Request: fold
Amino acid sequence: MFENSRRQTRKFKSMSSGAALTFISTLMWFLMSASSASALNMISLDCGAGSVGSGDQFVVDVTMNFAESTGGGGMEIYLNENLSFVSFTFDTIFSGNFGLLNPTNGSGNGSAGSPLEIAFGFFSAMPPWGYSGEQTIGQIVLQAGAPGSVGSITAGASSFNPGPFYGFDDVNTPMNVQFGATSVTITPEPSTALLLGIGLLGISARSKGRSRSQDRA
Reply:
């Protein structure tokens, strides 16, 4: 009788241990899934200076900071009417295993109906697959338009070729990516501002001269 009781106790402990391991495994899977779902993947734009002269060219850095590993994808860059596209150059790290697709100034000029497309993919056959972490993707060169206006640059998910970013955990569902934006204030060219300043000084000097002549009279 006591022997049967001991066997039942050992059996109960074994079942309890198995159930506990199952519970822990399930909890860990749930936490990992939740962490993956809430992982922050970002595409950022940075033009450095807050202002640029009319007609001047300036550089916008395109950077990624992915918590999840991506196998590739693309983004769209939109420019408002106060900016025009000049060129785009990938960072040197995006070579070798990466397939590149540069945006073109023509059919893709950054306008609302024709965004610039920037895309890359990782084709390594050996782990670690894909790419994650923080890295400069490349630099866009833009030209500022009319003075007194604001130029805006906005990134968004690719709706053309190659489409959105995909990871390796779920190749059928696009990754959750947060896209950034930036802007610059367009000021008059230095030469124009200088001429304007000289003109104002001349007007001021002439006005003072007239005033003195009237006082003497």
Q: What stands out?
A: Confidence is low (pLDDT under 50) at residues 20-37. The longest strand covers residues 57-79. Residues 2-38 form the longest helix (37 residues). Residues 40-192 form a domain with the Immunoglobulin-like fold (CATH 2.60.40.680).
